[in-house]
């Protein structure tokens, strides 16, 4: 299998020259919180197979839902037709949103991944203002945070601010307006939290005040900028951004692709600060990590703006071949049912407290600069010098080497630069959680060559 992989596959976010020189890890099966390779070795899935797995691998209820749906039909289009699982899931998603306090969201538009869910939201916001007409047609631009990551399609990359991923493509992108990131460890405006009194909000208001007349929407990852290195915004930041958007008549698009479905201890991150966005993009965990599916939820006001006679061409001309795929929707329904039947969110909050306690033991390590956590999402930032916060040069591959060492010890992780990303399945047991953090500690110890200061 190794040689066939090297001969035929181009892997995402992977330097293929290095890949073909190494011995690739090929996964054959999975069970619970573990992945099993072709040699029978077991590994803890410490990043939920790119943040998608929720209830562990081979969850019986989801397996059964997909099998039962497969007996009926695998796919039929939503263009001019409908199907039962997509209808039932839409009803369930809106009910879950309302139970989370997101009462304004009332309509569901399906797609197939996080990038396309965000992309649909961008086009909806743009067309919404165009349909309102008059001076509103000047609202054609988008605001996003510095270091943002919203996906890999051209529209979502236009929102992005991570040079390593996005800079090369700049000639292809449309202009967006950037707002300083609420990064308390490396504050872009050189303030210290909490003494700053959320100075980053004042910076955001300056941008909104200057550009609101030309801004369609503010796009934000609520509470956590995940791909930026698990940057957790300070309490109150999200709710104040929401208030500013209302004040300046700018739509708020919440990208809950990474944070949705229990990762932060609530079903959606917006729930923590009682924020209801105008548009919300969800994906990743929506099917429990089984099948590609995404959705963009919108308010009745936005939906109604697209209603009209055929000849007015107010239609939202956007869609995907696999929109509302019945298999994916069946998996998503089973996924949400498990949340309700197994009291998942309560258990996540308990395990989140345990994870916080476990990670606290790493804080004194001379090469651990910062530990950021919300729920079962965490980032451990490695630094070359703790006092100055000087990072390891990217070419040192510090994060990569720690993750490789962890893999040798039976834990699969993937870094973002110098940040070790930790997003286990929500179903992970306390015992495996303890084992996972112990492996990370040992891997950091091995790679940096420094002991923990107890």
DSSP helix count?
15
The oligomeric state of the chains shown is single chain
Distance between the termini: 45 Å
Overall shape: it is globular
- What's the CATH topology label of the largest domain? Aspartate Aminotransferase, domain 2
Structure commentary:
The protein has 454 residues and is of the alpha/beta class. The chain has two domains: 2-55 and 343-448, Aspartate Aminotransferase, domain 1; 66-341, Aspartate Aminotransferase, domain 2 (3-Layer(aba) Sandwich). Helices cover 37% and strands 18% of the residues. It is built from 15 helices and 18 strands. It has helices spanning 2-8, 16-21, 48-51, 60-70, 84-99, 114-132, 154-159, 163-166, 199-211, 237-247, 300-305, 326-341, 344-360, 398-408, 430-448, and strands at 27-31, 34-37, 42-45, 105-111, 141-145, 177-179, 215-220, 224-225, 231-232, 251-255, 279-282, 294-299, 368-374, 377-385, 390-391, 411-412, 414-416, 419-422. It has a seven-stranded mixed β-sheet, sandwiched between helices. A hairpin with a 2-residue loop joins strand 17 (414-416) and strand 18 (419-422). Helix 13 (344-360) runs parallel beside helix 15 and helix 14 packs across helix 15 (430-448). The longest helix is centred in the N-terminal third of the chain and has 19 residues, at 114-132. The chain is globular and about 65 Å long. The model has no long low-confidence stretch (mean pLDDT 95).
Short description:
The chain has helices at 2-8, 16-21, 48-51, 60-70, 84-99, 114-132, 154-159, 163-166, 199-211, 237-247, 300-305, 326-341, 344-360, 398-408, 430-448; strands at 27-31, 34-37, 42-45, 105-111, 141-145, 177-179, 215-220, 224-225, 231-232, 251-255, 279-282, 294-299, 368-374, 377-385, 390-391, 411-412, 414-416, 419-422.
